[in-house]
Amino acid sequence: MPGEDGPVTQLYNCRILRDHALVDDYLYIQSGRIIDPAKMFWDEQRLPDARIDCKGGIVSPGFIDVQINGAYGYDFTNDTDIIEEAVHNISKGLLLQGCTAYCPTTVSSRPEVYRKVLPHLGPRAGSVESGAAVLGAHVEGPFISPQKKGAHELATLRSAANGLADLDACYGLDNLRQYAAYVTVAPEVDGMLDTIPHLIAATGVGVSSGHSNATAEVAGRAHASGATMITHLFNAMHPFHQRDPGVIGLLGSSGPRPFYGIICDGIHVHPHSVMIAYYAHPAGACLVTDAMSAQSLPDGSYKLGKMDVDVHDGRVYIRGTDTIAGAIITMAECVRNFIQFTGASKVEALENATLHPAQMLGIADRKGTLAHGADADILILDNDLHVQRVFIAGVEATEENVQFRKRL
After folding, report:
1. What is the pLDDT of residues 248-272, one digit of tens each?
2. Is the pTM of this model over 0.90?
3. 151 has binding-site annotation
4. Where does substrate bind (predicted)?
């Protein structure tokens, strides 16, 4: 492994999330990776260079948020002229929350917006200097259902009647190929069902069904064609019906079941619905915040894309309506709420915020795990799952070395 001769840090007095269990063990970090200490002990006969007492806490991979629109006053869609400033400050703020990697999310927009912001939202490594790792953009819309648009601007929505040509005209296929992790589409949009496999083949991006009025039959065909995710389950989609469960019905499929994002703020999804989804398909749950620019800021008026929204009492609405428009919850709060809503174990809740999102993105060999060889993006949590310490690439992130600006 490159850099094997660097200093070694040992984490001790802890329970480590490993192999779907919390185990009493040590964790060793070297040159930004988690290492197997056997070679160090037996071949090199050396001791750790530094030791960190975890004080009986839990050691977990860093949280991974695959759907977040903004935070700290910044918005990935609206702030086109200061997009690098937005990415820089959000990445640092999220890191201190315990979110060590994320997918910056854009809402439905006009083509010129994608061409301006996507080149700034592509994958980049995490560090104390740059903040949380960026895993590539989540491009949400504009090939979505007008009937299930949620907080997306109606005038921006498009069809795919001309297949890939329409997607290229909107995003630029090269932009998707280089900068996007996955896209959210409604499979029933004209032309989209036939386009999904061509989109995946041409760009390598993942495809998620969302903001959709699709029937169960159409949703099933989309996922048979390569879609692997459902965006914010239950929100902005055909409601569950016993004779046609729509996209939600994929959780009961006899074939491969998709991953699904779920917002555990107690506002977007009732706790009973969270429990139903989880017990239907526990291995697919991915906790997401769907946070917007007001996350970690006071109540007031903000932007989500080009739309005006109001935040009060933990809720976000399009101004003058009762339409929910994103959230202001953090990943750590989602994890704790998930346990409260479902009675799930700490292991299950933590894996929904670490392992499952990494598996959905195809990066579980290096993110979302504490396996030997993985990136040393690590949290030390207390036994109530509050974040105590954060490490990225093996370096501890603190308020002193990760300074950032809030845009009030």
Report:
1. 999 999 888 999 999 999 999 999 9
2. yes
3. yes
4. 151, 235-236, 243, 268, 324-326
